[in-house]
Every structure is written in structure tokens, then in C-alpha cells.
């Protein structure tokens, strides 16, 4: 290419690389940019701690550890409240029979007793003395018409008599089944009133009779009674035969 146009083109081609070089040397990078070709500055201050992160998910259970040693026994605690009764358990097997117990008394209460006094003076000898003044004869085991006590309950009985002696001597005997058991004798002292008494325990069977009788002839029948002096006869059951 010749002429002015060619000259201009050649000039631009020569000047272009020079300008580029000069521009490269004159342009300096911005020190505030990360690509600055400067040396690093002093380290800055540490920043503030950040907020804690959220809790992570629970991890899986590990393997079961070995059993530890048994600790010391603690003190006994307070007694708790009584709980609700549990259900009745099954009935057990019958036990062995126990030893036979002693024989006890029956539910029926045995009673037999009497207490009587004399109303007539100088009873006849060798016949039962008829004590017709009744103090107690609830079971009617004493017969005032005969002067005899009739046993209705077999067992052990207590009998006693207390006699006033006047005018003559007294010798009496307590009879059981037509046989004299005990004797009582008192010698009368003139111008005086004496006392004679006796008592005995007897075992009687049902149907046995007991009475008091002047023993011997009429010289020993000084048993006496009036409105201020008494002669009495009594008896009662101590305990019955349970067999």
C-alpha cells in the first residue's frame, strides 16, 4: 500500500506496542484489591466468638458396661402405707391332725345347792331331821317333807351344818345312803346355850341321798331353834363329773 494511507498504517503499527509497554509500566494496581502486588499488612484482631451451634442428634447407645461392685446397705427407710389387699391365693393342702386336747366343760352350767333351817324343837331320834325353813332350794333337790337331799348331778359336794344345843346333849350324824359318814357330839352345860357344827366333802352319784339325823336314843336330841336361835343345814355342788 503506497501513499499517505500506507504511511499512516505503518506508523500505527510501530507506535502501538510502545504505548502498550508504557501503559503497562505506568498503571499501578489498587492496594485495596485482593490482587494488589503489595506485601501483607499486620494481622488484624480476632473476631468475636460466634453463637453456639444447635444441639446435634443423639448418638446411638453404646455397649452395656460391666456390672459394678455392690454398694453398702443404706439405712432402713420409713414404713410405707399399707397397700391394697391382694387377691386370695389358692387353697393349700389340709394339714396333719393335731393332738387331742383336754376335755373341757360343757356349755351347760350345772347347779345344785340348798340351805335350810330348823323350825321344830327336839327332833325325833333315828330319823332324818326335817329342816322346813327354806333359805335356798331353787333346784328343789332338797325335800323338806323328808329332810333328805337327793343327788341329781353326779359330782363332788360340800355339806355343812350348824346346830344350837339347848336343854340336853346333842349327838348327830350326817348320813349318805343309810350309812353314817361323820359324827358331832356336844355336852350341854346347864343355864347356857351351846353350838355344834360339822362339814364334809362327799362324792355322790345320781340318786344318792344325804341327810342329818340324831344318833342314838332320845337322850341326845338337844337340837334347838326359836325366833333368835337357828340350827341350819346346807350343801352345794363343787364340780360335776364330766365323764
Radius of gyration: 69 Å
User: Which CATH C-level class of the domain at 113-240 is it?
Assistant: Mainly Beta
Shape: rod-shaped
- Biggest sheet descriptor: 10 strands, antiparallel
Query: Any guess at the CATH architecture of the domain at 113-240?
Result: Sandwich
Helix content: under 10%
In terms of per-residue confidence, which ranges show pLDDT below 50 for 5 or more consecutive residues?
Answer: 18-26
CATH topology of the domain at 113-240: Jelly Rolls
Mean pLDDT: 83
The termini sit apart by: 173 Å
β-sheet strand percentage:
25-35%
Instruction: Name the structural class.
Output: mainly beta
Quantity of strands, as a count: 10
Give an overview of the whole structure.
The protein has a domain at 113-240: Jelly Rolls (Sandwich). It contains one helix and ten strands. The protein has one helix at 4-26, and strands spanning 113-117, 133-136, 142-143, 148-150, 155-176, 179-186, 194-204, 209-214, 221-224, 232-240. Strands 1, 2, 3, 4, 5, 6, 7, 8, 9 and 10 form a ten-stranded antiparallel sheet that branches. A hairpin with a 4-residue loop joins strand 3 (142-143) and strand 4. The model is unreliable at 18-26 (pLDDT under 50). Residues 43-95 are annotated as: Disordered. This is Adiponectin. Pfam families: C1q (PF00386), Collagen (PF01391). Residues 107-243 form the C1q domain.
Amino acid at each position: 500500500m503506497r501513499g499517505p494511507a500506507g504511511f499512516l498504517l505503518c506508523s500505527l503499527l510501530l507506535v502501538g506496542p510502545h504505548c502498550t509497554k508504557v501503559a503497562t509500566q505506568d498503571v499501578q494496581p489498587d492496594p485495596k484489591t485482593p490482587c494488589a502486588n503489595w506485601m501483607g499488612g499486620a494481622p488484624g484482631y480476632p473476631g468475636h466468638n460466634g453463637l453456639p451451634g444447635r444441639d446435634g442428634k443423639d448418638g446411638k447407645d453404646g455397649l452395656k458396661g460391666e456390672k459394678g461392685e455392690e454398694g453398702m446397705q443404706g439405712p432402713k427407710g420409713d414404713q410405707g402405707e399399707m397397700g391394697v389387699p391382694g387377691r386370695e391365693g389358692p387353697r393349700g393342702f389340709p394339714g396333719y391332725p393335731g393332738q387331742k386336747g383336754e376335755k373341757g366343760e360343757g356349755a351347760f352350767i350345772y347347779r345344785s345347792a340348798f340351805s335350810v333351817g330348823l323350825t321344830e324343837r327336839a327332833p325325833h331320834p333315828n330319823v332324818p331331821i326335817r329342816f322346813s325353813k327354806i333359805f335356798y332350794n331353787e333346784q328343789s333337790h332338797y325335800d323338806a317333807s323328808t329332810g333328805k337331799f337327793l343327788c341329781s348331778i353326779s359330782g363332788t359336794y360340800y355339806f355343812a351344818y350348824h346346830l344350837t344345843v339347848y336343854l340336853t346333849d346333842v349327838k348327830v350324824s350326817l348320813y349318805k345312803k343309810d350309812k353314817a359318814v361323820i359324827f358331832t357330839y356336844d355336852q350341854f352345860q346347864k343355864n347356857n346355850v351351846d353350838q355344834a357344827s360339822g362339814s364334809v366333802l362327799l362324792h355322790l352319784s345320781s340318786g344318792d341321798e344325804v341327810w342329818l339325823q340324831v344318833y342314838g336314843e332320845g337322850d341326845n336330841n338337844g337340837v334347838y331353834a326359836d325366833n333368835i336361835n337357828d340350827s341350819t343345814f346346807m350343801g352345794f355342788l363343787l364340780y360335776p363329773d364330766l365323764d
